[in-house]
Amino acid sequence: MGRRPDVTVAAIAETDGRFLVVEERINRRLLFNQPAGHVERGETLFAAVVRETREETARGFAFTGRVSDHNPAQHLDRGIIATHWLTREELEARQPRLRSPLVLRCVQDYLAGRRSPLDGTAQLELECAAALGANVAPPVDGSTVRVLEVTAAR
Question: pLDDT of 83-127, one tens digit each?
Fold first, then answer.
């Protein structure tokens, strides 16, 4: 069997102008990131982003929807120190502590309304998503945000 594809999903969750981010320990540094992680074998992109968001924030998640179902008793993923609701300005002030420049870029794209439909890819499994990602050019508007208007159910 060949090398496992490396496909990552990230969630943009916004409520009242604040974005849900995690503060995580990476190589002894505390960094901010969107709830994100790798797609597991046999898992769809949609299932992965729901799972990662729940594991890292103890909250349910919906694409372009509302974050709900907070379970304060749920343990967060290993390495996650805390969750925060930060405005774009607060994220910009923390740029040196962002895990990647894509954290702020995704928020800026979201706020600018730059979104691409995810209808055809949300239910793809790991290998199909990896193949698609290797063969598809980025959206012409340069957007980092994909949108699927679906609410995650528990």
Answer: 999 999 999 999 999 999 989 988 998 899 887 766 666 666 666
Contacts of 33 (CB under 8 A, 6+ apart): 10, 21, 22, 24, 98, 99, 100, 103
Element (H, E) at 127: helix 126-135
- Asked whether residue 3 is assigned to any structural domain, the reply reads no
Domain that holds residue 14: 8-147
Map tokens 């998503």 to a residue. Answer: 129
For 48-113, the three-class secondary structure string (H helix, E strand, C coil) is HHHHHHHHHHCCECECCCCCECCCCCCCCCCCEEEEEEECHHHHHHCHHHECCHHHHHHHHHHHCC
Query: Is residue 125 situated within a structural domain?
Result: yes
